[in-house]
Amino acid sequence: MQIESIDLLMALTQEAFDKNIKDLKPTGIVVIDDHVKTGNKLEGQTLYSIHFIEIAEKKYEKTSMINIVALGFLAEICGIIEIKSVRQAMLARVPRMSEEVYTSAFETGLNTANELFKKTEI
Question: Which of 24, 38, 44, 105 has the fewest CB atoms below 10 angstroms from its CB?
Fold first, then answer.
């Protein structure tokens, strides 16, 4: 099945952004790590550029937590699925005895989105 267009693109690497940006709708949302360069490839789409890698490295000393921080951010900004449901689905798939760190990373993503919206409302 070929994707014709997407509403939301989360790209945590330059490669992912470059490969998939062409499929984003003109009214789409782009969530990227702040290291990803968009150039002139965005034409009015909503852009969120967040320092996901920096958060994962500083707070968790693991860049592997970038996906979970980004998942929390995405869950908060989209509002399509209940956050409780996203959290439960995530916890059902994480390694046993690591639920606490994954929950913390998810909460960090939620808080990052909430802080962003507080700053833009002022």
Answer: 44
